[in-house]
Write a structure and sequence with these properties.
The structure is a single chain. The chain is mainly alpha-helical and 109 residues long. The protein folds into 2 domains: 19-56; 58-108, Membrane-bound Lytic Murein Transglycosylase D, Chain A (Roll). It has 3 helices and 2 strands; from the N terminus they run H-E-H-H-E. It has helices at residues 16-55, 69-76, 82-92, and strands at 59-62, 105-108. The chain has a two-stranded antiparallel ribbon. Helix 2 (69-76) packs across helix 3. The chain starts with 15 loop residues before the first helix and ends with a strand. Mean pLDDT is 81; it is low at 45-53. Pfam families: LysM. Residues 63-109 form the LysM domain.
């Protein structure tokens, strides 16, 4: 029968030079990770800002008696599909239907 004895693992203290090298390496890795994360989040913030800035460029029109979204689309759609333009106006102005009321102020894309 064979017997095994457990021996304590020997701990080799790290030399100051090796400890400093490890600390530098960990610092560089951490700093690189933070810079990369900052660049990624900064790019998404820039994209969001551009979207907000672009969506704030509206023309406003006051609805006159007899005005319809189709007539406004003919005047203001600038070559865009009239159906798409009308759908965008409805969403932009939170309209519940395509019916307009005289005196309403509409934001136009």
């Amino acid at each position: 029968m064979t017997s095994m004895t457990a021996t304590a693992a020997q701990i080799h203290p790290m030399s100051p030079r090796r400890r400093a090298r490890l600390a530098r390496t960990l610092f560089v890795i951490s700093a690189s990770a933070l810079m990369l994360a900052g660049m990624v989040f900064n790019q998404s913030a820039v994209a969001t800002d551009e979207t907000v800035i672009g969506s704030n460029a509206f023309n406003y029109v006051s609805v006159m008696p007899g005005d319809t979204l189709w007539e406004l689309a003919e005047t203001y759609s600038d070559g865009k599909s009239q159906q798409d333009w009308i759908a965008e106006v409805i969403l932009l102005n939170n309209l519940s239907s395509a019916t307009l009321s005289t005196g309403d102020k509409l934001a136009l894309p």
